[in-house]
Amino acid sequence: MAELQASLPRAARGQFGPVLSLRIGTVLLLWALWEGAARSGLFYEGALPSSFKIARAALNLVVMPAFYYNFGVTLLEVAAAVAIGVAGGISVGLALGASRFAGKAFEPYLQYLAPTPKIIFLPVFMVMFGVGGGSKIAIGALSCFFPMALSVTSGVRQVDPVLLRVGRSFQLTLAQTIRKIYLPALLPPIATGLRLGLGVAIIGTLLGEIKMSNRGLGFLIMQDYGRFDIAEMYAVLAVVFVLAALVNGVIARTLRMKGR
Amino acid sequence: MALLDGASPSLAQRAAPVLVGLLAIAAAIALWQGAAEWGYVNKFVAPAPSDIARSFPRLFTEEGLVGRFLQTFAETFLAAGFAVAIGIPLGWWLHRKPLAGMAYENWVGSFAAAPIVIAYPLFLVLFGRNTATIVVMSCLSGLPAMVLKTKEGLDGTRRVLVNVGLSFGLRPAALFWKIMLPAAIPAIANGVRLALIFALINVVGVEFLINFGGLGELIDDLSQRWELPSMFGAILFVILTSVAFFWATGRVERWFRPHG
């Protein structure tokens, strides 16, 4: 309970009881509205199934071996995408942040390309890496690269120049400067980039799977859609949303703990 | 030296990095062209830049690029318009009712991070494969930014301005229209820009995923027809128009910021 209270904004802590009541009331109201709409007969039942039916589908889903196989595939693809995106983002971020000239020459392109819709590159990656896991990893890595590169670039610029001068006076090599000064000072921006990058890598990878694949959670969603098994589709979507929120929450919590 | 002295850099100093950036891009294109011409790159995987350039007229004459561009941007503005129309009153309500603000602000923030685009099969079931799905999904992606920025702007109104209004005997409605809303305009303008950006990203993404609509559908169509030079050309067009759009909305937003 104390944990839950601590997660609220500071101003809300004095009003923990009313805030919690309002939140619970809202969840109940939304559930009642959904259930009412599903049972009203106004909507086609296949499109808007009862929440109980979705819960049953979710229970069936989590005991299905196929779910864990597809979950494992997505997990591996996301992990590979994040590893590539993070490595690329940190390298480019270090290069652009450490050199003012390089930053002025190339950072505008990075800034402007960052918000473009990455999904349009999926056909290019499919042509280059095929319709298997490679193209999903590539689209996830591209999505993850931009937040990491931008976060590290701005982080490098905030490294205390005194530390760099001390490093120079100790005649550190470039590798030593990166390892002993930049990387420890860059842990917070790297963590922020990782949090943002992981979220978009999950989305990119899943969208790749949804568009064209024969395995992964995205494939499972499209399989259910194709069979019009809408209750199971809602269940898979709910699982994906819960997993994404959990991962995001764990990283945010780790960041808060490191920040204290 | 001028930089060290704190004097503003000369035109040549400012232009040098920009020129280097442009030259690097030109060199990369030349390298790509050479690799494609000499057979180091398979033209059926990565067509030569000259072939991509040659495909542009065809995109306009045969693929209706202008019409598709207008459709994508009409959907973007419609979705962002709905996000603004719903987001500003919601943000105002969260500001006016502190308990609601405390209870729901985090939820709105979490909703902003939720991978809504993955749920597009759900929207297809609810709305069908049409413009409504694209607009509703894109509106939902822009809505949280609009709500949060409106609340942020209204919360940030200087207390002294509100007190002056009260001392003049302004009624709540007049206080809102004459003091709070003008004070919140920079934050709201930022929210509108974010809503437009998120809407554009989602519109193109959903068009591509459901193969319906403007520029996103064109890229998907061309990839399915394996017309790679045209597909690369369409992707380049989307990137350029997105960059121009972000730049233009940035300039407009800057106009709303307080000067001096």
Task: Describe the overall structure.
The complex is a heterodimer of chains A (260) and B (260). With 260 residues, chain A is an all-alpha fold. Chain A has helices spanning 2-7, 16-40, 51-62, 65-98, 100-113, 122-129, 133-157, 161-169, 174-185, 187-211, 217-227, 230-259. Chain A has two domains: 2-43; 58-259, MetI-like (MetI-like fold, Orthogonal Bundle). In chain A, helix 4 (65-98) packs antiparallel against helix 5. The longest helix of chain A has 34 residues, at 65-98. Chain A is globular and about 75 Å long. The model of chain A has no long low-confidence stretch (mean pLDDT 86). Helix content of chain B is 80%, strand content 0%. Chain B has two domains: 11-46; 58-256, MetI-like fold (Orthogonal Bundle).
Annotated CATH homologous superfamily of the largest domain in chain A: MetI-like
Structural class of chain B: mainly alpha
Distance between the termini of chain A: 21 Å
Query: Major sheet of chain B: size, sense and barrel closure?
Result: none
The oligomerization state is: heterodimer
The total count of strands of chain B amounts to 0
The number of distinct helices of chain B, counting runs of at least 4 residues, comes to 10
CATH architecture of the largest domain in chain B, by name, is Orthogonal Bundle
Number of domains of chain A: 2
Largest sheet of chain A: none
Name the CATH class of the largest domain in chain A: Mainly Alpha
- The CATH top-level class label of the largest domain in chain B: Mainly Alpha
Number of domains of chain B: 2
- Largest interface, with Cβ-Cβ < 8 Å? A-B, 57 and 54 residues
